[in-house]
Structures are given as C-alpha cells and as structure tokens.
Amino acid sequence: MLKEVHHVVSRPGRVHEDPEYDIAVPDALLTEPGIRQDLEDVSFYSRVYPLETQNIEKAADREWVWTVYEPDLREYRLKHDEINEPLVQAASTSGDLQPTTAPVPGADITEAIRIKARELGFGEVGFTKYNRKYTYASKKGWVKYEHAICLALEQDYRQTQTIPSLEAEFTHFGTYEDEGALAIDLAAFIRDELGYHAQIHSPNDNSAVYIPMFVAAGLGQLGANGQLLSPHFGSRARLMIVTTDGPITYDQPIDYGIHQFCQECQVCVNRCPGRALVKEKVVWRGVEKNKLIYDRCRPVMARYEGCAVCMLTCPIQRYGMKPVMQHYIDTDGEILGKGTDNLEGYTLRDKGYFGPGKLPKFDRPFFDIPHGTKEDYLFEKFKEKLENSGETTTEEVMDFAVDLKKILAEGKTTRGDE
Ligand code: SF4
Ligand code: SF4
After folding, report:
1. pLDDT tens across 32-45, in order?
2. Pocket of ligand 2, candidates 258, 260, 262: which has the most ligand atoms within 8 Å of its Cβ, to mutate?
3. Which atom of ligand 2 is nearest to the CA of 324?
4. b/e for 309-341, b at 16 or more Cβ within 10 A?
5. Torsions phi, psi of 38, nearest 5?
6. Sign of dihedral through CA atoms 348, 354, 355, 361?
7. What are the structural domain ranges in the chain?
8. What is the pLDDT of residues 17-31, one digit of tens each?
9. What is the atom index within ligand 2 of the atom nearest the CA of 225?
10. Does the pTM of the predicted model rise above 0.85?
C-alpha cells in the first residue's frame, strides 16, 4: 500500500539553472515546519547560559587531537590551516568595509543575492533574521547586521563516500577553503554592486550555532546525526553565513518530514562507531533534538580522519531527499538503503570492515580526552601533579605560570574547523 502524500516541496535544482526539484512529503511524516522548540526556554538559556564556541569551550581537546592525528592527516591539516588563515582573517574584518556604491532606493536585494550566490556555486541559499539567541558569548559584540544569508556549499560526492579517510578529509577541508573564498566574492558583490554592508561569518570561526538559521530559512531540517539535512546533499555540505543591512525578504521554514523520518530511520544512530548518537530526542536548551554525546564522538573523530560515519550512512546524503521520500511512499514506509552494506558499511583503518549490525569495540582509555578550555586543562594537569607527588617545586610553579600566561596571551582567537 502506498503512503498518502501530504504536500510537495519545490526547491531550486542542485546547481544554478537546474530545473526545480520536487519532494513529496507523506502524511505519515508530518510534524511541523522548522525546529520543534520552546522559544521562552531558548531565550532563557541564551540570556543566562549563553553558548560558547567549541574553539574556546573545547580548546583542550581541540589541541589534543593534533597529538593523535595520523602523520599524513597532520601534514594536510597544517597546509589547510595555512591556506585558510587569510580567509578567516578577511572574514573577521569584513563587516567594517564600506559599500562603494549607492543603493537603489526601495529595491529589495534578496533575489540579486540569491542568484549571485548560486552562480558562485552555493547549492543552498536562504534568508532569515540573524538569530542572536544562538550567538556565542565571545562573538556577541562582533555581529553587526540583522539579516542572515545562509549558504551551503556541497562537498564532493565521490570523496565523501570514502569516509573515514584522508581522501574524504580533502573534500571536507577543501570545501571550507572554497567557501571562505566564495564568500569574499559574495560580500564584495553586496558592497560594490548593491550598496550595502556585508559581514562574513567564517565557517571556521563561527559566530553562532548556524543550523537553526538554516532551518528557519527553509534549507532543510535537523537530522538525528546533529547535522542539517538539506534536499540535494543531506549533510554533505559546509555551512556559513553572511549578514547584511540591505533590504531582504525572509524565507520560511519547511516541513520536509525529517523529524519523524529520522525517528524511523535511525541508521546513523545504529552505525556510529563511538555510540555517540542517541535514539530518543530530548529537549536541550529549549530545542527538541537527538543530542550527540560529545565525549564519545571526539575520540573517534580524532583518530579516524574526522570519522563522519553519521554523514556517510545517512540515506539523504547518499541518495538525496526526493528518492528517499518517494521510496518511503511507494513501499509503505521503507527506508531506502537501510540494512544494506551499500549504505551502512564502512571500514576503520586498524579495525576492518563493519557491515549492518556490526560495530567496532574500543577500550575505556580510548575515550579519555582532555576537557574544557586550555586553562581548564592546564589547571587539571597541575592538580594531578600535586595530587600524585604531594609537593611541588618553585620551578614547576613558574612553568605553570609561564604556560598560563601564554594561553591568556593567545586570547580568545583560537580557531579550528572540525
Ligand atoms: S562523527 Fe563518528 S563518532 Fe561522531 S557521531 Fe558521527 S559517527 Fe559517531
Ligand atoms: S541516517 Fe537516518 S536518522 Fe540519521 S540523520 Fe540520516 S535520515 Fe536521519
């Protein structure tokens, strides 16, 4: 028996000037457009417990990952950081640049920006209010303009299917480099052709949690893997934002049926090597979601080339949303690819191949990683030393002070991009 279709979502084609892409959403998957959330709770947490970027809050483990990287990944990451740094720097000061042309009075610039961004190669482009409730504490004074242009750049299909691998990391980090450069062109277009300010929010020095804004702009919905599932490439994309003060018309959130689909699919949850994804949704800071367990994910990501098995095994990443939804409708609720080696299989370097139903095992120490900021980690190590030796020398105290000073001098500008 077929599932009933409730509505059809029409989206732009995968690349600029491709024909429209229609996705049938069945009755059985209907929940609500966008994100299920309690706005009062979201506001409360934002005011009282503002979010902070992982570049600061998790700096200790972000530094630790370099100690467990395979040598070839380490070499590649160093090169990537060198290429990427000027792009991140350019983004950080982009909001101060002045427009070089006068705007056309009364003209809405939404479609001009959408077309330009698509011409540049962004696969998903949407518009919404920049939501300061999701801004990181350290970025609160930095964000200048109120309209968010949400941009997703697709990463290479073939390379992504080799996850986890160095090859897949080439497209992961390479896509960041590409979009950092493309955003500079888009911001210049807004300033020099349309006459308004544009501030680039680097994907490697994020100003906020971006996914809620992408969902508000109708570009997809939050999957059980904690990633934005968009129509053409699921989570196989890198996200960034440009904000502007030009006159913009906002897009609207869409119900693609993803909330309910993920509850029935669960492939990423079942395939995660670190058992870091959870089956049941919880309400976290006012938002209903499947909350990833960071401490079970990070050790796997660090040691297995970014892992991302949760991206690899997602049917929407692999096949696209349209055929996945159509298969669900035609087969009375089957999940395309579920239970097959084609979708669910992966290989971990020193562990071998894992097909459906099989997962690798790790011992307890595998999951011991440093926690918190760099200062937290330094204090933790110093405390351990005191506890173990019972006393400390003046030299050790001096070393501690020097290390702490170094960390404080680095300030809150540490960046990373995993
Ligand atoms: S990156 Fe790997 S360990 Fe982390 S949630 Fe995804 S599948 Fe699990
Ligand atoms: S694998 Fe399935 S459950 Fe996980 S994000 Fe993709 S669609 Fe949702």
Report:
1. 898 889 999 999 99
2. 262
3. 7
4. bbbbbbbbbbbbbbbbbbbbbeeeeebbbbeee
5. -110, 105
6. negative
7. 1-373, 374-410
8. 999 999 999 999 999
9. 5
10. yes
